[in-house]
Amino acid sequence: MFSILRRWGASSSYQRVPGGPEAQKCSPEKSASFFSKMTYSWFSRIIILGYKKPLEREDLFELNESDSSYVICPVFEKQWRKEVLRNQERQKVKASFHKEAHTRKPSLLCALWNTFKFVLIQVALFKVLADILSFTSPLIMKQMIIFCEHRPDFGWSGYGYALALFVVVFLQTLILQQYQRFNILTSAKIKTAVIGLIYKKALFLSNVSRKKFSTGEIINLMSADAQQLMDLTANLNLLWSAPFQILVAVSLLWQELGPAVLAGVAVLVFVIPINALVATRVKKLKKSQTKNKDKQIKLLNEILHGIKILKLYAWEPSYKKKIIEIREQELEIQKSAGYLAVFSMLTLTCIPFLVSLATFGIYFLLDEGNVLTATKVFTSISLFNILRLPLFDLPTVISAVVQARISLGRLEDFLSSEELLPQNIETNYTGDHAIAFTNASFAWDKTGIPVLKDLNIKIPEGALVAVVGQVGSGKSSVLSAILGEMEKLTGVVQRKGSVAYVSQQAWIQNCILQENILFGSIMQKQFYERVLEACALLPDLEQLPNGDQTEIGERTRILVTHNLTLLPQMDLIIVMGSGRVAQMGTYQELLSKTKNLANLLQVFSEQEKAHALEQVSVINSRTILKDQILEQNDRPSLDQGKQFSMKKEKIPIGGVKFSIILKYLRAFGWLWVWLSMATYLGQNLVGIGQNLWLSAWAKEAKHVSEFTEWKQIRSNNLNIYGLLGLMQGLFVCSGAYVLTRGSLAASRTLHAQLLDNVLHLPLQFFETNPIGQIINRFTKDMFIIDMRFHYYLRTWVNCTLDVIGTVLVIVGALPLFILGVIPLVFLYFTIQRYYVASSRQIRRLAGASRSPIISHFSETLLGVSTIRAFAHEQRFIQQNKEVVNENLVCFYNNVISNRWLSVRLEFLGNLMVFFAALLAVLAGDSIDSAIVGLSISYALNITQSLNFWVRKACEIETNAVSIERVCEYENMDKEAPWIMSKRPPSQWPHKGVVEFINYQARYRDDLGLALQDITFQTHGEEKIGIVGRTGAGKSTLSNCLFRILERSGGKIIIDGIDISTIGLHDLRGKLNVIPQDPVLFSGTLQMNLDPLDKYSDSELWEVLELCHLKEFVQSLPRKLLHEISEGGENLSVGQRQLICLARALLRKTKILVLDEATASIDFETDNLVQTTIRKEFSDCTILTIAHRLHSVIDSDRVLVLDSGRIIEFETPRNLICQKGLFFAMLTEAGITQDSGTKK
């Protein structure tokens, strides 16, 4: 059988896309024969290949061109633009008639309809044909029952009915599967189109819109709301199909039972408003749930981006608690929705019964002579079973419409939100200057307070310009204005040529280093090598591939800087103050005519103690740039860990282990598991009992004349039928309740385990795995666990019981049926075995292909300013199409594999129907017509039941991959426990003595040592500077102190305690750090300072004063409760750094690690901060990781590292006298011997 099915498409061959051995398979669908297309035999090649070996991405067929994102997105964008223009015209017309016209947003639904209307009409036609054929089967069955009741002499008509029944159900199978194929793929196209539009819109959002829509909310729009539109499209035809089927079913029932059918219609009319009320409640719950999901994704995104800070400060429990609080709100809503589902399940199962009960009861009341014959009973039951499907679909469709309305509103709000205006800046300027401001004022939003006022700046071509000023003076805002990132309120801004932009906070994409350097440009190798040398990246690229960079001609360079040593090299200096240009001119002009610059220089000079400025003036600018980048790029990922690379998501192969299902069942709770099984068994047994009772009732009807008390018997039969229905309703309610309780327990347990596992993973994991992969587990995978997996399990159990019951009933009626069932069951399992092997792997590929979509979207939102500055929007839009297209390829192959299975399974089911009908004809007078009706009606149902049974078995296995992915982190290497049995004294450390003894560390087992034989000891309250070239191991040393990186040998002792013997939180909670990157989280200022809520308000105000932030915070309307936006974007980087300093002052431990903590603040503030640190941490041991050498020049001792070893460890004065590596580094940096060194 399988080989015959395989040969249906044997003539179809695939071609390869030009491009060499890496090219992938084109879909052979277009060249396949009509029969092969209808039966999907052209796909058999993939099914067989998947059975022989685990499928890989290159094994899958490519999309048809019309189904790809490259075609779909531009067509839809064109229709959306037309809709936007039409809406603008409508608003103009309304405004002409009404003074205050209601603002209406462009309709996303209209744009979607105009894009996909022809394919949607095609899908609707398939659905019409399938629905018509579904009503033909009961009519043919009716004729067969009549035939068996009367047995005419010409028996060939019975064979004709059996054959006709087979032909009709087979045609229905073919047409229905075409409908499913086009319907599901069209819904995927709509999702693709919407994602493309969301991505493009996100690239052009204004600052006001970015504040309105957080990163988490935008990602949720792409993942959840676009999915809701896809779900609506998949169910769209049910909006008219369900009423159509109900109408036809009622019409046919009228022919059987007359006006009595109106009683059934009355039951339907009564239930529909109740369903509407339920749908309204569900709508409110869904809206609340969407907000909670937005909050969770937003917080997760921040936690994962700031995971290093959380680990350094031991804040994981605090943020874990915040996530769990949001999760509990989600689960409460999920519980309410689950209890509403109890009612939905009750109506779904019991409405057909209630309709039949009401109809039969009224049928008897209308006329005492009315008798339920086998013809009437089983024709009616078949029609009631057909009626069950639209009644089942209606709640689904209502829910989809409700959720889609919410999603459409959210999407329209986003797509209609304000964009940056291109006219904010003139980019086609051809004048004498590179950049020109004329009376220009700017704000972050049109109605906001001006941040920059009355700017009049002319920057010549080729000039090197510095923008300086104190924290909050508007320096970075000047760059934002040049880039067009701010709203222009007045004046003119003109810019000539293209822009290269280096943001204050580095934005690195999740790709290899060469692609980050390339950034869409073409290689010019000679110039590229000069750039690498200037950036001091050559040592780091020894084991990495070369990058690419285009040749750049004469450039105008604008530096927003706190490093005043660079000022003498500038052609133009702009001094900012309170959002205005305080002074502007060359270095000598400003030095001679103003006190502002002189004051700044004086502060810096005092800090440096001597000749740094004079020395700088004689070294060339290339050395300066090289020195700055060399010293500022010593990061773990480019240290010994430089061989790290972003890992592709691991795709499991082979079957899902039963242990994964057991994990879910354990989380579900064994009590709820066994109760579920009991209720479903009871539900199915009662259902079989109802049909057997109707069959016996129909038998009695033949002998109505023999019963003297027929009216009483009929009443008893109806009562028993009603009692069985009541029992079924109780079982259904109990099953739905038990399922809700168990699924909630499983969701809570698995989410808590996932969150706990993620927070215990080492930092290296987050550096080498895209954040999108992790978020995907909290979103898509948890969604499947929350909403779908328990449904698949329940459906599979019900189908299993249904199939067993159906076979037993038919075999009981027609014993010879077992002869046909055995070979068909063998074929079922053969097809299932082939299908599952392929489908499982395709699903896994599809799951893995979703993560890059989220990762790419997330990193785009983080780097949108850089993308816009380089004018690379179109390149990133193209990249988005590529990652979406990869997911579409997997989805397409998955849809076709499902259709391939359905055609074959339903064909075997059709054979069962034919076999049952044929046996009924062959049985002649030996079988009662009631038994014929019972067996054929059950046989008609078995087609769907068997298909569902196999499909849901596959769904369970393929969706169990989500449980597998959620549990994947469970077996990964974790950090040490947060708290151990051995705990340090509460006052530890009391001296601050740090001792490294023969310490060794490596980032991975397959890498060399990052630190080798490190041995040194600090004194209590000593100030140690740690220096070294890139890759020397400076940051690695601090990571080891916090046990971010664990030892490979040796030990670290702090005040007599080996830090490896205590818990991480006992260690990290007693250390203090001010990191180089100032990471803030969305929430109040108070929460950012004190997330553990340990300190009083007075203590918070005290540290804010010490950090020179008190005046600023007091000026805020809500003061300590001021809301920090995502990533701290509503504060300057300098202000963020000062808040990080305030955190450290609150902790006040005996050991402080400074990682170039003042790199983002001006020198005047830096001087105040350094004074604060010296005063407030005077009794502390301070380890300063130096990226700027002047910051350690006044240290007690300096530790010099090279290649992970200690080269020198002495006082700065002695190191200079030795003229070793430290002296060489000072010379390169332009710092002289007498720059304030300690002896």
From TrEMBL:
Localization terms from the record: Vacuole membrane
Limits of the ABC transporter domain: 435-652, 994-1228
Pfam families: ABC_membrane, ABC_tran
Membrane-crossing segments per the record: 159-176, 260-279, 337-365, 720-739, 817-836, 907-924
Record carries keyword Ubl conjugation: no
Key words of the record: ATP-binding, Membrane, Nucleotide-binding, Repeat, Transmembrane, Transmembrane helix, Transport, Vacuole
Gene Ontology CC annotation, any one: lytic vacuole
Single Gene Ontology MF annotation: ATP hydrolysis activity
Membrane topology, record value: Multi-pass membrane protein
InterPro entries, per the entry: AAA+_ATPase (IPR003593), ABC1_TM_dom (IPR011527), ABC1_TM_sf (IPR036640), ABC_transporter-like_ATP-bd (IPR003439), ABC_transporter-like_CS (IPR017871), ABC_transporter_C-like (IPR050173), P-loop_NTPase (IPR027417)
Major site of localization recorded for this protein: membrane
Xref: SMART domains: AAA (SM00382)
Taxonomic superkingdom: Eukaryota
Residue ranges occupied by any ABC transmembrane type-1 domain in the UniProt entry: 121-403, 674-948
Family in the record: Belongs to the ABC transporter superfamily. ABCC family. Conjugate transporter (TC 3.A.1.208) subfamily.
Protein name as catalogued: ATP binding cassette subfamily C member 13
